[in-house]
Amino acid sequence: MKKKKYNVAIVGATGVVGKEFLTIxxxxxxxxxxxxxxxxxxxxxxxLKFKGVDETVQDLAHETFExxxxxxxxxxxxxxxxxxxxxxxxGCIVIDNTSQFRMDPNVPLVVPEVNxxxxxxxTKKNIIANPNCSTIQMVVALKPIHDKYxxxxxxxxxxxxxxxxxKEAMEELSTQVKELFNMREPKVEVLPHRIAFNCLPxxxxxxxxxxxxxxxxxxxxxxxxxxxxxxKVTATTVRxxxxxxxxxxxxxxxxxxxxxxxxxKLLAKSPGVIVIDDPKEGVYPMPSDVAGQDxxxxxxxxxxxxxxxxxxxxxxxxNLRKGAALNAVQIAEVLIKDYI
Length: 340
Ligand code: L14
Prior knowledge:
Strand order of the largest sheet: 5-2-1-6-7-8
CATH architecture of the largest domain: 2-Layer Sandwich
Number of helices: 8
Radius of gyration: 20 Å
Structural class: alpha/beta
Number of strands: 14
Order of helices and strands: EHEEEEEHEEHEHHEEHEHEEH
Strand content: 15-25%
Bound molecules: trans-cyclohexane-1,4-dicarboxylic acid
């Protein structure tokens, strides 16, 4: 028998993505029975509003996940590593936002517009992984193009907002701006260098080959989500002084002949994508317009005539919504519609 309501736990409830989970569950009228807010001992006892009611945050360390149907996880990766399997064994289906389980062959990595069928594989561990924010917005825009024209190679550079690194990084940007306007040397504590009036070509840590982990997430996760390792992907990921909204400059080369006009038409009718592309009028997507919205926005669609079948484009999305909480709630919506 199908349930009418589902008990939901939010792990990492006091973080930027945790709060976004609450907003989105409420906005989309997700059929929540009990809501359980969980965080570290440090945050336990705080209250957060859900549907107008103050809910108390509880200590994750004391949680058994008995009776919880769905766990929306967005703590640190090491916290997911410990608690997602505990929740999964207790019968709670975990949708995890961290990088911990994404490349685990027994865990599906899902973007509902791209590979909803992979959700069926959740039963192996009761865990579904939510991809990296930059990967999600890129694959939503590129999947329809890949299906029709077969993408051979993707070259992407990202312009990622500070909210990806959490509320401490957002505070660091605003504090640094204030300090600089007061002629004081700003402190650098969260991000690797000063982010105010700056760009940092580093997100996450470096690997031996000179790439960052964030860059390799874009490569490996794209292969897993597309179910196609033949697409070549190379990435440079950069932090910019923007609060919310990630942008990407994306160059693709396809097997079949491709025309910018056809790409515009194709993307305009693709699920979850909005084309904003009138460059002569100065119209293209920007994080300042896109923050708070659900779709992936694409503009600056134009031919790259340095290769036979090349296209350049600019892709922007709200990294806390489609890049994190919204994508996870959309996975939960497919789960309750088709599986539980
Ligand atoms: O892997 O610092 O999902 O902006 C995405 C955001 C890693 C950190 C992930 C950031 C995170 C990243």
